[in-house]
Amino acid sequence: MLAMNYRGPYRVRAQQKGEPEIEHPNDAVIRVTRSCICGSDLHLYHGLVPDTRVGMTFGHEFTGIVEEVGSSVQNLKKGDHVLVPFNIFCGSCYFCQKELYSNCHNVNPEATAVGGIYGYSHTTGGYDGGQAEFVRVPMADVGPTVIPSDLDLDDAVLLTDAYPTGYQAAEMGDIEEGDTVVVFGAGPVGIFAAKSAWLLGAGRVIVVDHLEYRLEFVKRFAQCEIINFKEVDDMAIHIKKMTDWLGADVCIDAVGCEAAGSALQQLTGVKLKLQAGAATALHWAINSVRKGGTVSIVGVYGPTFNAVPIGNALNKGLTLRMNQASVKRHLPRLIEHIQAGRIKPSEVITHRFPLEEIADAYHMFSSKLDNIIKPVLIPPSIRH
Question: Angle at Cα 326 formed by Cα 319 and Cα 154, nearest 5°?
Fold first, then answer.
């Protein structure tokens, strides 16, 4: 089969690999129909995630058609068209019982924090991902969800990560009616977080980024205010000026470890790797939120040290909430929002690439060329 092959930082290519097989009675093999490149895939691409091994196939956002199921799979059958949450989870452990699917205790022997994730290095279990023609799906009875017949496939693939992550970012903010919400980052997750903030009762939504085309996109999609941080001297003071000198009620970090905006953070976190990425957006969130406010973090950071102003958070009495999204928990509500016409997730898709052109797709997305917001990969078997 054709699959993305990681060869080292900034080096990916489409190559032939062996097709996956059933390895456990609860596995399924899925023929991929859509897969996305996520902003967090770029952290892998840039060499910032530990234990990302040569030969790995990335891709944690995908849909596909069930080709084969293991002997114990009861909830799927050959021919089902499914969306696959990026979380790999057992459904039965202590954490899954609490719907903390991203923290499943049984699927990632490499860590005691995050559970399994498709195509996201051996720190999340070493599972190959869906930027390929076929993918093995473990725990197939609990993860995949059959796509409703009235749901567009391009909308469905955004339900595997980007939309649920943006929604959970807003949900973790504990938004109350009329709250001012500031979202740092106008990538797909930040865009969905801004849109979801309105659905959860926000009275004002502000999005911060430095790329004008992304800011204009989120302004149209989420009907929000925008700030280009390159035009701001001090983010906390700027936000306070906009909020009667109190600060925002909720700040959301939808950027993570490659945030621009601070030369020192870039040097120590990205260039020298003395900390687990540049925590610029997290600094801004903690310093821009009001006393007693909430900071929600969904931007990806590594499992090692970050220089974070925890003293400011303590003395301001902040609530910090964070996690990888537990996609399955949100799907019923998010599918309802789509079916009711409140949101059209596929509107964020700006580019479609044949899987064969994956190197060009990563380069374009990484370099933010051609006003790219969200790229989707189409395997050759789907085009024939």
Answer: 120
